[in-house]
Amino acid sequence: MRNINEPVIIRVNVFSREISLDKLEDTFEPEILVTVMKASIHSLPPLRLQTTEYERDIPEVKNVGGFGRIYRRRLAKMNGFDDVFFIDSMGRISEGSISNIGFYDGERIIWPKAAALPGIAMQLIQVGKK
Predict the structure, then answer these.
(1) What is the residue range of 124's domain?
(2) 60 lies in a domain?
(3) Are residues 88 and 111 in the same domain?
(4) Do 33 and 65 reside in the same domain of the chain?
């Protein structure tokens, strides 16, 4: 039995088993998969980030098509880095492979201007600042 005060990560996936490449224009009833995992809370040392040019296809929508970002994270790890840091085609910072990034100037957090998936922590920080 789970302690109700224990932090958890809840992941909700919305998908359809009925969709196929020859029926992309059809509408399907979505299926929902909910996964609950224990959250690990600990302090991390500073990360070593390798930069690379990469942009998500639809940055504001989290999707299962993560090959490009996972591949680039793997290359960064093979090069001795902890993660990869994405730069868009205009040279603007966007995000990490599994995280958002912001820069604290002593008074406020400066968020990147490039399109990126707005993560939950980023959204909570932004709402808390209003």
Answers:
(1) 49-128
(2) yes
(3) yes
(4) no
CA 41/CA 39 separation, integer angstroms: 6
Order of strands, edge to edge, in the sheet holding 49-53?
Answer: 49-53, 83-87, 93-96
- Buried b or exposed e, range 93-113, using 16+ CB within 10 angstroms: bbbbbeebbeeeeeeeeebbe
| Two structure tokens written together for 112 | 């990147």
Predicted structure pTM score: 0.64
- Per-residue confidence of the chain (130 residues) as pLDDT tens digits? 566 778 888 888 888 888 888 878 888 899 999 999 888 777 778 889 999 999 887 777 776 778 888 899 999 999 999 999 999 999 998 998 888 888 889 988 888 888 888 887 888 888 876 5
Look at the chain and report how many structural domains it folds into. 2
DSSP three-state, residue 129: coil
Geometric angle at alpha carbon 41, from 74 and 68, rounded to 5° = 20
Enter the DSSP assignment of 106.
S
